[in-house]
């Protein structure tokens, strides 16, 4: 029921046991600030799932705020309101906010027939943890 900017979350430190951030970070101006906020509100020992569109052919995340044309953003980032396309450095970006990260390639654990049956994309699941101090 709360609406807020994920870059400035109006909750106290160590507020929650679990965070789910599903396809939000590619939209915000400062994704690193948003990640720091998610880490801040997560209790020590807490966990979360942080998902964003990925391009595994890219070694590094690409972002360019000078691209403002919606058609050009769609062409480059995959959607008109995206500000970046994450590369294989995504887990490192999560770690830079203080998280421990599990990069889970769930689809790889299934057969091709199972992936088709369940219509699974090649996306990874990123589970983050805040270490107990």
Describe it for me?
The chain is α+β, with helices and mostly antiparallel strands and 133 residues long. Helix content is 24%, strand content 23%. A 4-stranded mixed sheet has the order 1-2-6-5. A two-stranded antiparallel sheet has the order 3-4. The chain is globular, with a radius of gyration of 16 Å. The mean pLDDT is 95.
Strand order of the largest sheet: 1-2-6-5
- Tell me the structural class: alpha+beta
Radius of gyration, in Å, reads 16 Å
- Give the rounded overall mean pLDDT: 95
Q: N- to C-terminal separation?
A: 31 Å
Continuous helix count = 4
Q: Which segments are poorly predicted (pLDDT under 50) over 5 or more consecutive residues?
A: none
Sum this structure up briefly.
This protein has 133 residues and is α+β, with helices and mostly antiparallel strands.
Reconstruct the topology from this structure.
Blueprint: E1 16-22, H1 31-41, E2 42-51, E3 62-63, H2 70-77, E4 84-85, H3 90-96, E5 100-104, H4 112-117, E6 125-129
Parallel strand pairs: 1-2
Antiparallel strand pairs: 2-6, 3-4, 5-6
Notable characteristics:
133 residues, alpha+beta, four-stranded mixed β-sheet, two-stranded antiparallel ribbon, globular
């Amino acid at each position: 029921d709360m609406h807020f900017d994920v870059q400035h979350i109006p909750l106290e430190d160590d507020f929650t046991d679990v965070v789910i951030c599903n396809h939000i970070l590619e939209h915000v101006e400062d994704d690193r600030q948003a990640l720091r906020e998610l880490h801040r509100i997560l209790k020590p020992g807490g966990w979360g799932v942080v998902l964003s569109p990925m391009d595994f052919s890219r070694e590094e995340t690409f972002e360019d705020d000078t691209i403002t044309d919606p058609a050009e953003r769609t062409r480059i980032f995959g959607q008109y309101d995206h500000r970046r396309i994450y590369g294989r450095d995504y887990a490192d970006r999560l770690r830079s906010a203080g998280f421990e990260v599990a990069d889970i390639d769930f689809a790889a654990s299934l057969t091709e027939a199972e992936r088709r049956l369940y219509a699974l994309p090649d996306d990874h699941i990123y589970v983050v943890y805040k270490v107990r101090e």
